[in-house]
Design a protein that fits this description.
The chain is of the alpha/beta class. The protein has one domain: Collagenase (Catalytic Domain) (3-Layer(aba) Sandwich). Helix content is 37%, strand content 19%. The chain contains 6 helices and 9 strands; from the N terminus they run αβαβββαβββββααα. The strands form 2 sheets. A 5-stranded mixed β-sheet has the order 2-1-5-9-8, with helices on both faces. α2 crosses α4. The longest helix is centred in the last third of the chain and has 19 residues. The N and C termini lie far apart (60 Å). The protein binds zinc ion (2 copies). One zinc ion binds next to α4.
Length: 218
């Protein structure tokens, strides 16, 4: 006879603990970080407004919405008719004024990266760990007949996740944490709490308190 709790109870307990953990800490302010949001190609203005609001609310950073730039031809991957995320990051870094500490690109086009044995794996977004740039695509967020509410909820999580990578947050194994590896899966994304676990919060806060105050970073 096992003394383990039934699985449903364990799940409920895990959720309760996660809620307590996620609510117990608050992030340091990133008010000194200057962040540019750059639309790549045509992007719904409501999506852009939501991304700016998400970033501001989550990290308390200074966000500026820049004019749209066309999709860089150097990032186009013809065999799959989509864009390579790393090349988009290179382009964002090269074309964004050095006065911005971070730049977030947003596109409605499909984007991809290499993942394990897969050379070209479609993703919601990509962010450089402790780097300057990240990019988000809405292309895969509207799947399964997602409502606008669901799409904007997914957008917020991906924007905050990819930006988290630029603050030095790697993927986290805590189920439901914002920094969980989404693996390009809408199901994982929808199950994500949208909040950082305590350890990710501590890490992000350390970055926001210290690194964000270093002068002349690129
Ligand atoms: Zn990630
Ligand atoms: Zn975490």
């Amino acid at each position: 006879m096992s003394d383990l709790l039934p699985e449903a109870n364990l799940r409920r307990l895990a959720r309760t603990l996660a809620a307590i953990t996620f609510a117990a800490f608050s992030l340091a302010s990133g008010a000194e970080l200057r962040v540019a949001v750059r639309p790549l190609g045509q992007v719904d203005p409501a999506v852009l407004r939501a991304a700016v609001q998400d970033l501001t609310a989550m990290y308390d950073v200074q966000v500026r919405l820049l004019p749209s730039e066309p999709m860089p031809p150097s990032a186009y991957y013809r065999p799959r008719n989509r864009y390579r995320a790393e090349k988009l990051l290179d382009s964002l870094e090269a074309t964004t004024d050095g006065g911005y500490d971070k730049v977030l690109g947003i596109t409605a086009q499909d984007i991809s990266t290499s993942r394990g044995q897969w050379h070209d794996w479609g993703v919601f977004g990509l962010g450089r760990l402790s780097g300057r740039s990240c990019v988000v695509s809405t292309c895969r967020m509207g799947g399964g007949g997602a409502s606008r509410t669901v799409l904007l909820s997914r957008l917020a999580k991906v924007v905050d996740h990819e930006f988290g990578h630029t603050l030095g947050l790697p993927h986290c194994t805590q189920r439901g944490c914002l920094m969980e590896d989404m693996r390009g899966s809408a199901a994982v994304l929808d199950a994500c709490s949208g909040l950082l676990c305590a350890s990710c919060q501590a890490r992000a806060s350390a970055f926001l308190r210290h690194d964000a105050h270093a002068p002349a970073r690129r």
